[in-house]
Amino acid sequence: MMKKSFTFKDRVRIYDTDAQGVVHYAGYYRFFTDGTENLLKSLLGKGYPLKGNTWLVVVESKAKYMRPSRMGDLLSVRIDPELISEKAIRFNFNIYNGAKHICTGYIIQVSIDKNRWVAVDLPREIRRKLDRA
After folding, report:
1. CA 108 – CA 124 distance, rounded (Å)
2. Is 21 exposed, middle or buried (0-12, 13-18, 19+ CB in 10 A)?
């Protein structure tokens, strides 16, 4: 398990909100995805797509919404990555609006060969950098 957390700031945009003016549940998955991409960019120097024939695909996700957030709010997205196998990473998320904890969740991504659509070991560079994080 990795020890380091990564935190990124993101602002709620109009397309993140629903008719009531609060972040729609799907909007939090945008924050999850953008946070994951930012984490990979900070570790590897680039986000998606990865080099070569490797893709990371989401195979499981969960989110729990505890408080609303509204357009214009500046959110902190904390990510705690965790290698769960040679082929999979679990990205744990906690989202804050100031000091208020508004959402928690995770996504699990599996490394696949994009040409054959079969699970493969995560690239060594990713495993090594996550282990050092």
Report:
1. 18
2. exposed
And the tokens for 89?
Answer: 């990473």
SS3 per residue for the chain = CCCCCEEEEEECCHHHECCCCEECHHHHHHHHHHHHHHHHHHHHCCCCCCCCCEEEEEEEEEEEECCCCECCCEEEEEEEEEECCCCEEEEEEEEEECCEEEEEEEEEEEEEECCCCEECCCCHHHHHHHHHC
Instruction: Yes or no: say if 126 and 86 are a contact pair by the CB < 8 Å rule.
Output: no
pTM of the predicted model, to two decimals?
Answer: 0.90
Query: How far apart, in whole angstroms, are the C-alpha atoms of residue 95 and residue 79?
Result: 9
> What are the residue ranges spanned by the domains of the chain?
6-132
Residue range 6-132 forms a domain whose CATH class is alpha beta
Span 77-123, pLDDT tens digits: 999 999 999 999 999 999 999 999 999 999 999 999 999 999 999 98
Tokens at 5, concatenated: 């957390």
Rg (CA), the chain: 15
Could you identify the residue written with the tokens 């900070």? Answer: 42
